[in-house]
Design goal:
The chain has helices at 14-33, 47-55, 59-64, 83-92, 137-153, 172-183, 192-200, 211-217, 229-244, 289-292, 307-316, 338-350, 364-373, 384-389, 407-418; strands spanning 37-38, 44-46, 66-69, 75-78, 102-111, 123-132, 159-165, 249-251, 263-271, 279-285, 300-306, 329-333, 355-357, 378-382, 391-396, 402-406. With 419 residues, it is of the alpha+beta class. It has two domains: 14-171 and 227-316, Bira Bifunctional Protein, Domain 2 (BirA Bifunctional Protein, domain 2, 2-Layer Sandwich), CATH 3.30.930.10; 329-418, Anticodon-binding domain (Rossmann fold). The strands form three sheets. It has an eight-stranded mixed sheet. Strands 13-12-14-15-16 form a five-stranded mixed sheet, with helices on both faces. Strand 9 (263-271) and strand 10 (279-285) form a beta hairpin. The radius of gyration is 28 Å and the shape is elongated. The two termini are 49 Å apart. Bound molecules: zinc ion (2 copies).
Length: 419
């Protein structure tokens, strides 16, 4: 029987895992600079949480969730995104009663039953941030600067920020009505998905990728023209902060984000390059979500970033990831000295060194070949004489230079070398 990874999933092999670690470490290091602390929540939650938190009318909830019933008959779902679980945890553990703001970041695997495309998987990884307790545009702008720094420090080219405001529960109904009136005469020309969205969430028609829908969306009324005074002040506040930070942006009235719970600010970072599908990262403000999920009224803002797409993009741009570090020393031995070789390697590892030794009972000749293949920087050969004297000659592989050392000096010599 031949087993294969399930469709829509992918293995991260050793030759790629270093890139993942690099990006994840970069992200968490940046989060530390902004006082964002990591939160880890379960991979599955009650189905109801996502129905309420992501929104019944969304494609995610309607078509893309991995639902299952557990042995006790409870309806469960593999998380399709990160925010709902974080908000559930924020409420459950009373974080709302701690001093504001609460700044959290996550590094998760999420699951959506989606059409397969390049850089899109059914099991995928996201990095994200959520900030609770500030209704100020400074919180929105801070998250955008975090992302902007992240992308600049990865030296990403051709990536730009698109921003929009979709208003709040006060001003959005009037906008929705204006949009609905505009779309109604074009209804027959919209794609099937958009005809469904027209009734449930007409804003989604604006970011539909179908050509016919895009044409119609071109002249649609803009949410920015329907903002109430509070939303307008927030929007202008955000733009002036971005101007102050000299972060370039485009105002894009078609950015609406797919999720029901967004309010005011919405944004995306979009890549111009071929090979990946545009949006690398999306986020926005969700002031009503904590309350919607049973917590106290709490403003919130956040983003999520798709790691698969980010890596595709970095690869396309020829980013050079740090190479894996080669072993500092390989200890080769004849069969009689095998025990001593293993013991010596263990003692070096205890000292924090990267030491390798044969564990496959290779011949001496095969061990030398192996030492070359793994690119060990130093080689030590253990024979009768070395075992008797407890000292030996270590050879620097790069230039063949040799040095006589007692085994007790070996660790301190190599430690200096590793630094
Ligand atoms: Zn408003
Ligand atoms: Zn459409």
């Amino acid at each position: 029987m031949n087993f294969r990874a399930p469709r829509g999933t992918h293995d991260i092999l050793p030759k790629e895992s270093g890139q993942w670690q690099f990006v994840e470490q970069k992200f968490s290091e940046l989060c530390r600079r902004f006082s964002y602390q990591e939160i880890r929540t379960p991979v599955f939650e009650q189905t109801e949480l996502f129905a309420r938190g992501v929104g019944d009318g969304t494609d995610i909830v309607q078509k893309e969730m991995y639902n299952f019933e557990d042995k006790a008959g409870r309806a469960m779902t593999l998380r399709p995104e990160g925010t709902a679980g974080v908000v559930r945890s924020y409420i459950e553990h009373g974080l709302a009663s701690e001093p504001s703001p609460i700044k959290l970041f996550y590094n998760i695997t999420a699951f959506r039953y989606e059409k397969m495309q390049k850089g899109r998987y059914r099991e995928f990884r996201q990095l994200g941030c959520e900030c609770f307790g500030s209704k100020s545009a400074s919180a929105d702008a801070e998250l955008i600067t975090l992302l902007w720094l992240f992308f600049s420090e990865l030296r990403m080219k051709d990536i730009h920020l698109e921003v929009n405001s979709i208003g709040c529960p006060l001003c959005r109904p009037a906008y929705k009505e204006a949009l609905t009136e505009y779309l109604r005469p074009h209804l027959s020309k919209l794609c099937e998905d958009c005809r469904r969205r027209f009734a449930t969430n007409p804003l989604r028609v604006l970011d539909c990728k179908e050509e016919s829908c895009r044409k119609i969306a071109q002249d649609a009324p803009k949410s920015l023209e329907h903002l109430c005074p509070e939303c307008l002040a927030h929007w202008e506040g955000l733009l002036s902060l971005l101007d102050t930070f000299a972060i370039p942006y485009n105002i894009n009235p078609k950015i609406v984000r797919g999720l029901d719970y967004y309010s005011k600010t919405v944004f995306e970072f979009i890549s111009e390059n071929v090979g990946t599908q545009g949006t690398i990262c999306g986020g926005g403000r969700y002031d009503g979500l904590v309350e919607e999920l049973g917590g106290p009224a709490t403003p919130g803002v956040g983003f999520a970033l798709g790691v698969e797409r980010l890596l595709l993009e970095l690869e396309a741009q020829g980013f050079s990831f740090p190479e894996p570090v080669d072993p500092t020393i390989f200890i080769a031995s004849f069969p009689e000295q095998r025990l001593l070789a293993n013991q010596l390697a263990f003692s070096l590892r205890k000292e924090g060194l990267h030491a390798e030794v044969d564990i496959c009972e290779r011949s001496f000749k095969a061990q030398m070949k192996h030492a070359n293949r793994i690119k060990a920087k130093y080689l030590l050969v253990l024979g009768d004489e070395e075992a008797k004297q407890m000292c030996g000659r270590i050879k620097r592989m790069a230039d063949g230079a040799e040095k006589e050392l007692s085994f007790s000096e070996l660790a301190s010599f190599l430690v200096n070398f590793e630094e």
